[in-house]
Sequence to fold (80 residues):
Amino acid sequence: MTSSPSQRRRLALAVAAAALAAGACIMTAVFARPVTVASGVLGAEWQCQRIVWVTSCTRVQPEIPAVGVRQKEPVARRPV
Fold:
């Protein structure tokens, strides 16, 4: 069975397209993963992550415990 040059070109193009798509998937999986960055300069209340070359930092608010929080005093009602 012989194949024509145009069929070989189509097969080569299909193989190249599949290899390009597989490479793009691998690169996305490797580089799009967020990486935690040490935030020694900003302090403990900041949390930084890096995706490829972009670094984003968000300020972490400390949680206020529910125990020990002073509640409002009940309002005294006057009799009518």
In short: The mean pLDDT is 76. The beta strands are 35-37, 46-51, 54-59. The first helix runs from residue 5 to 31. The radius of gyration is 30 Å.
